[in-house]
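Query form — protein Cell division protein FtsH

QUESTION: What is the three-dimensional structure of this chain?
INPUT:
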Amino acid sequence: MNQWWRNAGLYGLFAIVTIALSTAVFAEQPQTLETWEYSQFIQEVEKDNVNKVSLSADRTRILAQSEDGKRFFVNLPDDPDLINTLVRNQVDISIVLELKDSDF
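ANSWER: The structure tokens for Cell division protein FtsH are given below.
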């Protein structure tokens, strides 16, 4: 009978480890962020649908967050009025050296 319990315990442990590993592997996958067109971004800023942005130090890319919490990237053209547009629409601005998905 002891052999039976040892085998049952071993199979039970194997099942628990398998479930734990499969849960870790198939858990929520990281969200890939979409890239918006610059014109769409400016329209959303002017509608007050963007509440904060992280601007790359070289001013070529923005990681933005909309009012509903959705995050997205924007590749920036050379627009000297961008900062004024963001300030006028009360968007929180931060400057980062390198943009990552976790900057908010």
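ADDITIONAL NOTE: The longest helix spans residues 2-26.
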